[in-house]
Amino acid sequence: MTKESAVDVILHPVRMRIIQFLINQRLTAQQLKEFLPDIPQASLYRNLKKLVETGVIHIVDEIPNRGTIEKVYSIENPSKASIGPDDLNKLSKDDHLGLFIKFMANLMGEYERYLNQDHIDLVADGVIFRQASMYLSEVEYAYLIKELTAVYSKVINNKPQKGRRRRTIATIIIPEQLVEEQ
C-alpha cells in the first residue's frame, strides 16, 4: 500500500470539510458531527484519525465525559492544513488537474448539500457564482490579491454564533496563456 501524500490527505472531500470547520476553532467529534450531519460517525472518526496521524490537525484537549474521554481537535499549524508552493511545484500536469477536480468536486458537494435543503431561496440566501476576466499587469494583480486578502482577513476569524451563517467562498484564478509581445 502506498503512502498517501499530504495533498491527498488534505483534499479528501470529508477531510476538507473537517479542516474548514476547524479553522480558528476547537471542536470535539460530537460538535463536528452536528456541523456535518451527512457524514456517518464511523467515517468522521476515521478521517479525524487520519488528519491527526498526518499532523494536519491535533488533539488539543481531552475532556472526561460520562466515563469516556472526549477529544478536542484543532489546527495548531495552519500551514499543515494547506498545500505549500514546494509541494505544488513538484506535481505533474495530471496531478494538478486531479487536484482541481477534487477542489471542484468539493464545491459541487457543498452546493448539492445546499440544494438538498427543504427550502432554499437563492436570492435571499445570497447564492452567487460568477466569472470575470480582467487584464492586469503583475503589479495590478499583486495589488488585487492584497486587497482580496485584506477583505477576507476581516471576517475569516468570525466564530459561529446566532445570526451568522457559514458561507463558502471559493476563489479560482486561472491566467491566460502567456503570449510573447511582438
Task: Give structural notes.
By secondary structure, the protein is mainly alpha-helical. 46% of the residues lie in helices and 9% in strands. It has a three-stranded antiparallel beta sheet with strand order 1-3-2. Strand 2 (58-65) and strand 3 form a beta hairpin. The protein is globular and about 70 Å long.
Instruction: Classify the secondary structure makeup into a structural class.
Output: mainly alpha
List the secondary-structure elements in sequence, H or E.
HHEHHEEHHHH
Query: What about the largest sheet?
Result: 3 strands, antiparallel
Total strand segments? 3
Ends distance: 52 Å
Mean pLDDT: 87
- Kindly estimate the percentage of residues that lie in beta strands according to DSSP: 5-15%
Strand order of the largest sheet: 1-3-2
Radius of gyration: 19 Å
- The low-confidence runs, each spanning 5 or more residues with pLDDT under 50, are none
Number of helices: 8
Gross geometry: globular
Q: How much helicity do the residues have?
A: 40-55%
What would a concise description of this structure say?
The protein has 182 residues and is mainly α. The protein is built from 8 helices and 3 strands.
